[in-house]
Amino acid sequence: MKKSGVVLGAVVLGLAACGGPALAADLEERMAPPEAAVDFATQSPWQVRVRGLGVITSDKGFVDGIAGSGLSYSDTVVPELDISYFFTDNIAAELILGTTYANIEGDGSIAGLGKVGKTWLLPPTVTLQYHFTDFGAFKPYVGAGVNYTLFYNQSGSGAFTNLDVKNKFGAALQVGFDYMLDKHWGVNFDVKKLFLEPEWKVDFNGAPLTGKAKLNPWLVGAGVTYRF
Fold first, then answer.
1. Which of these, 150, 182, 185, 184, lies nearest to 164 by C-alpha position?
2. Which terminus in the chain has less CB density within 10 A, N or C?
3. What is the 8-class DSSP label of residue 79?
4. pLDDT of amino acid 43
5. What's the pLDDT at 2?
6. What CA–CA distance (Å, rounded) separates 8 from 14?
């Protein structure tokens, strides 16, 4: 009995000696802390985007004193740059920069008068955004803010001269998302609605005309995001 007990003990010790390294490695792997997930919000608060932007206007407006008069405007595709600053993981401010043009056409009862003129627009817009952070690399956001549109390089067409569309403040609403490919780079899709209805005036064969241009454009953009 004593001899068999000694043999059994030796076998147990041998198995322990052989399996010890594997068991230790397995235990170390189980005890190691999990790899930290990439936290995109721990980076610089600055972010920039470059987008291609479709400017889709609302074809509404009128000439004062002419019943049934209307206006229509050309739609355009232009580049856009925006700069964002994150105050917290969720709250950011965004400055949107870009410029475009609009051809203005007579519509409704004045459709036969043709093209009224052309103007360039510089509509810097600032929005305050809320970014949702519970979806990993997918980062949707909503925003609201203010727009100030400057009209420049204005010119009448044909019998229309001295076109003057007045600079105007307006409200802005925004919804979009970034999909981050890594800590810095991502892709972006964004939709904004500007509420923009400037007063305007023009001379037609020397007679002054006034009215309101109800542009109210949709700005639909897609592009690239870079987080510093």
1. 150
2. N
3. E
4. 80
5. 42
6. 10
CB contact set of 128 (below 8 Å; sequence gap of 6+): 91, 92, 93, 143, 144, 145
> Beta-carbon neighbour count of residue 107 at 10 Å?
19
| Assigned CATH topology for domain 43-227 | Porin (2.40.160)
164 and 201 Cβ atoms separated by less than 8 Å = yes
The tally of CA atoms less than 13 A away on the side-chain side of residue 59 is: 13
User: CA-based Rg of the chain, rounded to a whole angstrom?
Assistant: 32
Query: Which residue ranges make up each domain of the chain?
Result: 43-227
Q: How far is CA 22 from the centre of its chain?
A: 53
User: 140: closest CA among 199, 188, 192, 193?
Assistant: 188
Q: Which residues in the chain come in under a pLDDT of 50?
A: 1-16, 18, 23-24, 27, 30-38, 40-41
pTM of the model: 0.79
Run of H or E including 31: helix 2-31
